[in-house]
């Protein structure tokens, strides 16, 4: 099953709601880390990357400091959007800075089972020894299968496993909104 076999059930965030949530997370990152010295962002492709770039832009607007942004390309081999097949696989890392000693904020659009984040943590640890790693997600939909939690959450959305959260970003989807999809029966 893919998103074509699903229909929209509800809109969770519009463009303004997404912006407010991301600006708030930018403030929280600055507050929690007492500034952004040694802070670096790493976005999980695909939709975590524009979100990380937006956070970097908001942080720059608030603090006047540019923080580096790296990319991890992780694919979940799913045969169905509502179930997980094999483990997520890390394909490519585009991290041009040393992670050693950095406060890394990992950024993704949706946190679900936590398996993608676990793979991302492994990939980051392979690159060096960060001082700490924090996690920022636009949507936490619950249903964790491993003990992972987010430090910064745009919105907590209770879901059933049959539903799918679809984050639509203008850079990728030519629209800005977050919707819940359900199976078209
Ligand atoms: O917590 P998990 O169960 O691992 O699920 C969360 C992951 O699933 C989504 O990726 P998806 O494969 O849908 O790709 P996308 O980023 O292109 O939307 C989302 O972007 C997260 O990376
Ligand atoms: O519902 C979900 C689950 C994982 N990833 C998504 O993008 N949506």
From TrEMBL:
One Pfam short name: Pribosyltran
Domain Phosphoribosyltransferase: 11-170
Entry's Gene Ontology BP terms: DNA-templated transcription termination
Catalyzed reactions per annotation: UMP + diphosphate = 5-phospho-alpha-D-ribose 1-diphosphate + uracil
Enzyme Commission code(s) on record: 2.4.2.9
Signal peptide boundaries: none
SUPFAM superfamilies assigned: PRTase-like
Motif PRPP-binding in this chain: 104-116
Keywords of the record: Glycosyltransferase, RNA-binding, Transcription, Transcription regulation, Transcription termination, Transferase
Keyword Nucleotidyltransferase (UniProt): no
GO molecular function: RNA binding; uracil phosphoribosyltransferase activity
Subunit comment: Homodimer and homohexamer; in equilibrium.
Biological role stated in the UniProt entry: Also displays a weak uracil phosphoribosyltransferase activity which is not physiologically significant.
Family assignment from sequence similarity: Belongs to the purine/pyrimidine phosphoribosyltransferase family. PyrR subfamily.
PANTHER family: BIFUNCTIONAL PROTEIN PYRR
Protein name stated in the entry: Bifunctional protein PyrR
